[in-house]
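User: Assemble these into one structure.

Assistant: Restating your components, then the assembled model:
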Amino acid sequence: MHGGSWNGEHGRQVGDQGMTSLRIDRLTKEFVTEQGEIVSALSDLSLEVGDSEFVCILGPSGCGKTTLLRIVAGLDQPTSGAVLIDGHPIDRPCPKLAMIFQEYSLYPWRSVLANVTFGLEMQGAAVARRQEVARKYLALVGLSDFASHYPYELSGGMRQRVAVARALAIEPAVLLMDEPFGALDAQTRNVMQMELLGIWEKTRKTILFVTHSVDEAVFLADRIVVLTKRPGKIREIVPVKKCPHPRDRTCRDFVEIRRHVLDLISEGSAD
Amino acid sequence: MKIVKILAVVACCAVLLALAGCVASTPPVQSGTTVGILYTGFGTMPTLMATKQIDGYIAWQPFVEVAPMAGFGKVLSYTGDLPPDAVWKNHPCCVLAAREDLMARSPDLVNAVTAATILSTRYVNEHQEESGAIVADWLAGKGNFTYGNISVSSVDAMTRAIYTVKFTNEPTDAWENGILKFMAAQRDLGVLKGPLSNSTDDASKALIFDTGPYRAAIQMLEGKRIVTPAPETRQLGIGYLMSDHDTALFVAVKKWQYFNDTYGIALKPRDPTQSKPDLVDLLVNGQKVAEIKLVPGEFGGPLMQLASTDTIQFVLVGNPPAMASIDKGNPVKILMALNTEGSGVVVSSDAPASDWPSFLQWAKERSDAGKPLRIASPGKGSIQDILLSYTLKSSGVTVKEVQV
Amino acid sequence: MRRLSLAFPLLILLAWAAGAHLINNEFILPRLESVAGVLLDPLADRLGTGSLIENALRSIERVGMGFLLAAAVAIPLGIAMARFRRLNDLLDSTIQILRPIPPLAWLPLSLAWFKIGLTSILFIIFLGAFFPILLNTIDGVRGVKRTWIEVASTLGARERQILFRVILPGAAPTIWTGLRVGFGIAWMCVVAAEMLPGTTSGLGYLIMYAFNFGQIQLIIAGMILIGLIGLMIDTLFRKIEAKRFAWRELER
């Protein structure tokens, strides 16, 4: 694949070898509170995610976006509907999908390298191969020098990079990211966004990225799926193809799209 | 209704106060002499004496002898010399008891053990110094006892003590009657609540004694031939007190070679390097007949308890704990004596008493002054306790247990 | 910090030495020298029970065995109880009732059930170590962050792998604390346990034996030795904790 700008066009067709389809089909999630009330988190939500697409899921707090991501990851079960990857329904965590959490996800008793090799260890890969793969991805996230360090020695941003490397190491088709930069300061956040784009460019993963930051969504996504307040339904899907990467936050298209999305969100909150 | 409740509460309070008044504070005016008895193990007695919390104690040897040797007390009287004379001279002390089921199942084995004990008792009487050293080894590894800043050699203490213990086995009529006297004392103390609480003398003797093994053993020894018992498959146990009253056992084990060679019977220790062997083999006529563990106990009560659960089958113990246990239904019998006398009363070094009459005088003075004497005794219901209580009472002294 | 924690015992020793000379009654306060004399001759036979060192080793052996037994039962049980709600509900009240009972109180029952010998002693020591280990294991497993477990799931770990690669390492510092506390209590039970008839060795036994003969210097020497050994082992636990479980503190 070429480096430089990415104009959002699919370079490949779905169904080709090595390509992944992710389909969310009429997903509904209800749960019963302690008081016995039935609360609807997601309602009849459907979405198709294309191969190598960067999709952001955006919405006000409590709109069910994290619930959605967890169901896709196989950590929770839907009340009705299904999530299909390459045609197979997801009912439990699957190696084709890797999830990156917001914080506290690294194993503090393991070194950085040992964290990154974790998934491969679970799969039974041999020591030499695990380390080789791990180092490759550590290099990708720019942390080669920190292989023997421990999580407590790293900054928040670095830890999230390790988390990304760890997820990439099992070579999943899809990355599920749950507000991964939410706990970082603004500066680091911007840097991490750039880095993520770089990694995405190099690895061509499909990314499903949950955030409540409009700015972040517009900066990163191919498409933004805006959800309504609970129960979460799709309000609108906003394409951001007009702006090539790296996006200029001050350019007119960016600002327009951002305003549009903001309106969608505030309308949704007002309902 | 409320009135009734209030009255009830007041009545209860009144009763409680009245009871409290009866139990607490000023004792009623005594016309006679009172002596307090404090029950505690010997271990605390030297400290209690030295800190003037007791004025004396009664104990079994060697705990009597160490007092003058270490300088924290003096011997007032050995128990055999306590009044009344007719009662306590040659008073029975420790006995050999055994479980009835073992006696029924393996009479030859019980007879053999009895014989071994008789032989060993004879040896003790003929070799007192050597026996004293053996006891010192067994009980104290021949080490020193330190009381205060004076160290006493255990060998010296044991050899001195051994002369005050009379080692004898024969279950004579006088001896049996002596034991019945202890039984009578136990009845008065309320210790016996079962069949021994009101049985006739003959009935009591039938319940308590079985001299069959003794007679069989004597016969075998006279005929110079000990019957080899059938080998015993399970491990047996002999319980004993940490006292030189059980010297016969210690000598039997330590001098096993001699007994083996001379009489063809021995209690051979598995590990002869132990100063206190805990496992022996009973050898008769060169054959190993049983494996026996030796279980030490601090008091008779716990040892009898072990006998009742068949953990041990033989006990070398004071006769009162044995009788109390038989009374409770423990299926054991007393076979013969191990020793008579061998205990003593010790008072503080500066006590104004050197014999029983002066002791009574001292007791009266202290009692009148409102500070009655306190004497420590090991174990309620033990021989020492019974001896002391009865001697005091027969001298007109009121005995009261000291509550700590 | 280290200096300060050495200073206080030294102060106590000085007070003891001075006090003993002032009181001048060995029965009330034996002189420091006489007790030190006993401690400084640890290989000499004491009243036929063996030397201080021998008895110490016997006690350590027993406590070690009882402790390991307790850990072998408590850790798996704790993991199971933390994992299976129903099991926890089933056992919780029983555990809360049994926990406050001092191991010493079990002596007569232990003797009746296990007869005289090693087993009855191990039972008492087992009881002492069991509850801290169990409760800390439950706590530790419950404290394992859900995120850690979910990360492992999404990276392809199966239940068994999650148990050994996430839950146990994550709970390890808390479990280790439980082990340390449990051992401390088990060590305290040594004296009680070795009071059982049929015991013929050990520091607890030595102390009881010395007590029966009124040998105060020996009793105090035994007490000090028990304290020192307890301290040594606790320090060992802490050192290992600092080395391998430092991450827990540093995470905060």
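The mean pLDDT of chain C is 90.
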